[in-house]
Known about the structure:
By secondary structure, this protein is mostly beta strands. It has 3 helices and 19 strands. The strands form 2 sheets. The chain has a 16-stranded antiparallel barrel. A two-stranded antiparallel ribbon has the order 5-6. The model is unreliable at 1-18 (pLDDT under 50).
Amino acid sequence: MEGMEGMEGMAGMDHMAGHGLMWQRGPWLLMTHGTLNWVYDNQGSPRGGRQGFLSGMVMGSAERSLAENDTLNLTAMLSPEPLMGPEGYPLLLAAGETADGRTLLVDRQHPHDLFMELSGRYSHALSATSGVWLYAGLPGQPAFGPAAFMHRESINDSPEAPIAHHWLDSTHVSFGVLTAGLRVTQWSLEASAFRGREPDQNRYDIETPRLDSWSARLSWQPTTTLALQTSWAQLHSPEALEPQRNERRWTASLSYTGQASDQGWWATTWAVGRKQPDGLPARSAWSAEASYHPNVQWSLYGRIEQVESDEWQPALDLQQAHKLTLGAVHDWPLGTRLWLGLGLQLSQAGVSPALRPAYGNHPYSGMGFLRLRSR
């Protein structure tokens, strides 16, 4: 995965880096990775709730050389999250998509589709430091935003989605994606045509592909540990409840992963996003997250984020909310390839004064979880 593949990772393979298992079968390099969390979720405030659920993903990839400078990669990624039901799980201040096709999900996080990614990528190296590629997915990930939250090394120990998800990386499951990319030394430029509509409430199907939206992403990777990107997107009718409204989005992010000691390492991501629905004020969000791994058995992580939205109470104008999350996981080996983890995270949120009658001043929430992860 050296050279050109490192920058292409944002389009589909970056999540293989930390925990993948690899082996050779004839001309194919095969890779697998999986994380399954059983979570007990307790969200405070009058708008919270309690629920147990299963989250995570299982993925596989097959890669082979077609010629001296050509490479083919096939990827499949599945999620168990449809088993939790169409309403997903309680998550204060999350909003987006629907459970029934008629009502916006508020203070709940929707489940991922069973098929999170079914994609192929063809790469051609122009030189040792440059190349081009074509990527297609049904579903797939267009060239927009940082890597999706469950793949970011800075926060992938957390079993919950960020409340900034629909600003930064919610397009990572799009039913119909075509992307062309160019890399020259440390720089990459990608452009995508994709289906802009969020996935519907039927989480087990593959939806009809459309290429009605577009995005572009410029990335710079000055070292093997540092990556920066900025991206733009024009989404056609992203919300099923407002089909007449298009939306423009912009993101920028910086990600760093490096050694912290002889055995330890840490990762951090700073990201900002802005979206502008037609006929409505723009709304912004930002997130700063980090994880520290003093050794292979302990993971400590945290995230602070802030968003602007009018979806929590439609009768109000744009309001602000912020959230701080801290967590820890301890892993035990189950043989040489599987690890069992026990984790706990706690969160505290704050909201604008107009929202305090509904949420309280500083609502708390927590999650305890058991995790199976391949390494």
